[in-house]
Amino acid sequence: MKNSNIKFPFLGKNISSSTTSFIPFVFFCSFVFFAYYCLITCWHYTQISDFKNYYDEALLYLTMGKMSKQFLFFQAPGHPFLISKVFRIFDSSNPSLIQFLNLCQYLTAIVLTHLSFKTQLSWIKYLGTISLSICVSYLSLMGFLAAEFNFLFFFVLGNFLLIKYLQKGNSFGILPITFLLLSIACIFGIAQFVRPLSFYYLLFFGIGLAYLKWFSPKTKLSMMQATLWQYVLVFIVFLIVSVGLYQNISGKWSYQPPQNGLWSIYVGFNAKAKGSYNAEDITQFKEIAEPFDWNGETLRTILKPKAIERIKANWLENIRQSPQRAMRLLVPYFTSYWFFAKSIPPNTNSIWNLLLKAIFMLSTLTVLVSYLSNGIYLVKLLRKKHLNSVEVFAFCALFSAFLYILIHVFCLEIQPRYAAHLVFLNLWILPLSLESFIQPNQKFQ
Predict the structure, then answer these.
(1) Which of 60, 71, 410, 429 is buried deepest, with most CB atoms within 10 A?
(2) CA pseudo-torsion sign 325, 407, 304, 238
(3) What ranges make up the beta strands (E) of 202-346?
(4) Membrane-spanning regions, if any (predicted)?
């Protein structure tokens, strides 16, 4: 009997029904799903901090059709909005529904990254996939109502389609490419609605693309079918979607919370707390904000001079503290605090905690290797004369990620889970950088 092939247009390949290479991956994903399911069902998690706020705001929106003004001032409403929809669909407000959704979204993101491009050495690709599956930044948040998972799902899906766009471009035809461009813009718009990070990622990605297109005398985009103007169209539609979603929930035309990043800068320049969350900051600000009923315009006029004052007083100290700040932001083992301190294992046997700590240490080591490997890879791509489509994506994505890291380390609030998507992105690209060292003249598909 002849093998039947199933065509996946956006994957750009045929998957044979009798293929043996796909079967191990299916078993691997099944094992990961089972392991994570056991983790979120056997461990008891205490929803606190932002995680509890998400839950409370979801219930408030479910019953009242609105969210609190304090929450909307600081954070994007997408995550509690989506939580409320899940609760309505299942007619239950059990947090385990969201924990299970976290698991499904994370596993889907891992599958998409595995299918996004090929490498000549399959074991290197699996090294990246396994690293993603034990990524501390997400594993340690698996049992919490974390916005990171909703953001990750849309962030990865948007980038997956972005890779296909860079690979195929106009060869899809007018209608398919239009649909693909609109899909990319809408998906990143939803991601921005969940956590206001996509704007900066896409902006810096576009700057990288413009550099390759216009300002690099050595680089030629030999295989990329897409055009820079199409990317500009994606960015414009992305902004429209973001603003529309935000206006629908908050009633205000904006693409991010009313504090417009001022709060993150204000906390980021708290030299005493080394840019980390400080209870004194929020306590003092609440005393100011509550009499004004959390009015965004008024509070911005109050917060702006306070932030400028801190910048002037502490900018030099921020530079001195930058190594500590970078370590706190980029080393994912710090995220494991949420798992070990805020969850209770199913029994007192410490072997499970030791096993998880070993996995977390292994994941942390892999992430640190990815920063080093990808940093060298970025320089190699910058000097390379011909880039194919996947290399264009890798260059622009790493350029965006590293630029954001630099800005975050020096200026913004330091919380390790804030860099979770950057950790995931670096592990996603890790197989490409590793293979560039092993086989310098490889051809990516």
Answers:
(1) 429
(2) negative
(3) 220-221, 343-344
(4) 21-46, 149-166, 172-191, 198-216, 228-246, 351-372, 392-412, 418-438
